[in-house]
Amino acid sequence: MTIRRGALIGCGFFARNHMNGWAEIEGAEIVAVCDRDFAKAERMQADFGVAHAYADAEEMLRDEKLDFVDVVTTSPFHRPLVELAARHGVAAICQKPFADSQADAEAMVSACEKAGVPLAVHENFRWQQPFIEIADRIAKGRIGRPTFARISFRHGFDYYKNQPYLAEVERLSLMDIGLHLYDLARHLLGEVETLSCVTQRVNPIVRGEDAFTSLLSHAGGAVSVVECSAFAKYEPDPFPQTTAVVEGTEGTLELTRGYRLFEHHPGSVTETNVDVAVPNWGEKPWQVVQQSVVAFERHFIDVLNGKTEAQPSGAHNLGTMALALASYESAATGSTIRMKDWR
Ligand code: NAD
Fold it and tell me: What confidence tens digit (pLDDT) does each residue in 176-231 have?
């Protein structure tokens, strides 16, 4: 079996899930880790038995023979790091938000295309088992042609504790969770033609918007409502569950809290438990997130081995980025944006 040699850049909060994921995948080995805060790189190196640790990604790319880099820094560093990988002819995974601007996202796509290396965006919601199941049932025609969806992520979990930078950013929930939900909407219902969005700042401690509600129309006639709040009061708090309804001409798929998936048809309903086992390195309530990281990473190794195309690729994610950025414009102007005319 070919073992793909990878390096992880950015040894912060979420990177531990990445490292635990890579440890599960037989066809990959993380041979180096890098963080400009070298103590973090060293800690990761020790915790996961990695051969080398670096403070400087440039030096790492010069010294190591790599098949891919896994970029897990926050977004301002994505473009220089992905371009660095491309210059060395190394494939890249980039965490979301892919970039802070469409121009940066396009530059990364172009750099990797010119270098002839795959570029994937770590867009893991579509790799969560409940959404793998929903997409599969739609593809099999179980609900006919999708006509409507509601994709909802509402909770009151204090995620500023793990990700304190989120409380400071000017663009919060659309760029953090909105991208995931828009990727799901495109994945399940197809390309978006028009978008309108209302944003809210509900929690007084945050600088940016922490809630939004969007209405999308999709090519082919379907409509979706995509909604998110990080300051909603529920007991028990449902974080990090996404709930969804997808109605089609022949039936409806309904994913409720507790990872219960209902498939409705006139006169019948079936229920499936689509929760996943907690990995031995993981913990509740993160299990579905952790499973999705492993599923995405396994998929990326298939991409490197030429078995499939990246889902999503950097090029595909440009459309998702456009939706998030256009949402700010829609919210600021109170307008509906026709995506083909946007920018
Ligand atoms: P973090 O701040 O905890 O970690 C980022 C690390 O990157 C820091 O240790 C920092 O020192 C390092 N870094 C920054 N620039 C660097 C550079 N040029 N070279 C080397 N190291 C560098 O952030 P986090 O919470 O782990 O989030 C990282 C990314 O993951 C963010 O983009 C976030 O949106 C994303 N994220 C995704 C999910 C998901 O479900 N897909 C969940 C959480 C976070």
Answer: 999 999 999 999 999 999 999 999 999 999 999 999 999 999 999 999 999 999 99
Identical topology for domains 4-117 and 125-282+313-341 = no
CA 72 to ligand 1 center in whole angstroms? 5
The span from the first CA to the last CA of the chain, in angstroms, equals 46
Residues 6+ apart with CB under 8 A from 262: 252, 253, 254, 255, 256, 269, 270, 271
Select the CATH number that applies to the domain covering 4-117 from these four: 3.40.50.11540, 3.30.40.10, 3.40.50.720, 3.40.190.170. Answer: 3.40.50.720
Going from the C-alpha of 304 to that of each of 63, 69, 226, the distances in angstroms are 21, 12, 32
Ligand 1 neighbourhood includes 13 CB (under 6 angstroms): yes
Q: Per CATH, the architecture of 125-282+313-341 is what?
A: 2-Layer Sandwich (3.30)
Ligand 1 pocket, residue 14 CB under 6 Å: yes
Answer positive or negative: Cα dihedral of 308, 314, 318, 324: positive
pLDDT 10s digits, 40-50: 999 999 999 99
Q: Which of 9, 14, 17, 172 to probe ligand 1 with, by most ligand atoms within 8 A of CB?
A: 14
Q: Where are the domains of the chain?
A: 4-117, 125-282+313-341
| Cβ 19 under 6 angstroms from ligand 1 | no
